[in-house]
């Protein structure tokens, strides 16, 4: 509840420093930017809940962004391009989960390596020269003035709301959701209780990559062109959203409901810092100190495995 209260307070604080921020356009802009971060942060949240981490999210976003523009520009339908990209991303996620759990490799190392391979493949395949274009309807989906049929919201915001509802249902009402929290709280106890740990890890990492790819496709519409580095900022901001929302990096607690609030807070903080004249580097320094402080605060609580 506290992160949502913070988001509410920040909104009025920003309005003091940036007069007119409370306009409809500003609200839609906040929701639009938060939706892109929110979709990308699903995977980071769930991998942290099970005791892992996903450093490949930026690379998958960049890969999907470039591939969609290239395939659509080459004459493939948007549907075919999206299906291919989402399937490829899912395979990447399954490989990350398999290597992390079955091969017992550190997920930080696994996802960092896979991200490096993906980015290397992008540069090798394009030689730094990215072309292609995106359909007009995709641009409209990520436009502040865009609408979704009779709904006066951009398509990406509607997609985020649907995804958020699905993830919250997954966490609270399904067996896989219970398994995820059990796996993060005490892996050994969960395994002894019959939780299929390999299935949990592969499912979560596949979902993380799938939604990272979704973010990459939406960002292609947001920028109107392909950019292999478009996901770079999302490594830092997805972690910030998770931590600011209150999900501890130790795993087994928290959840996506908190990350939703974290996305709003991180987006508002970025807007406020820009309004105060701080550049990208200064913003990252500020948010970095915020994350360190919050991690130190959450780190004072013992891990769930120490309390069971």
From TrEMBL:
GO cellular component: plasma membrane
Entry-linked InterPro entries: ABC_transp_permease
CDD domains in the cross-refs: TM_PBP1_transp_AraH_like
Keywords: Cell membrane, Membrane, Transmembrane, Transmembrane helix
Transmembrane segments: 6-33, 78-98, 105-125, 151-170, 198-220, 232-249, 256-275, 281-299
Superkingdom of this protein's organism: Bacteria
Protein localization: Cell membrane
GO MF entries: transmembrane transporter activity
Topology within the bilayer: Multi-pass membrane protein
Protein name: ABC transporter permease
